[in-house]
Amino acid sequence: MRSTRERIDDSALPLIGIYEISKILGATLDLDQALRDVLNVLSSYLNMRHGAVVLSDEQNKPVLAAVTGMSLQAARAGALKYPYAAAAQVISTSIPMVVPDIADEPLLESCAGNNEALEDEQIAFYCVPIKTTEKTIGALSVERAQDGQSFVVYEHDLRFLTMVATLIAQTVRLHRKVLADREMLMDDAKRLQKKMAEVAQAQPVRGLDDVVGTSEAMANVFAQVQQAAPTKATILLRGESGTGKELVARAVHGLSQRARKPFIKVNCAALSETVLESELFGHEKGAFTGAVAERKGRFELANGGSLFLDEIGEISAGFQAKLLRVLQEGEFERVGGTRTIKVDVRLIAATNRDLEAGVADGSFRADLYYRLNVVPIFLPPLRERTGDIPLLASFFLEQFNRENGRSLTFSCEALDVLKRCYFPGNVRELENCVYRTATMTKGDQIDELNLLCQHDICLSSTLWHHKRPGAEGSTPQPRPPQAPSSPAPTPGTGRVSAPIPVPTGPLSAPPCPAAPHGDTMGGEDSDLSERERLVQAMEKCGWVQAKAARMLGLTPRQIGYALKKHNIEVRQL
Question: Where is this region: Disordered (predicted)?
Answer without folding.
Answer: 468-529
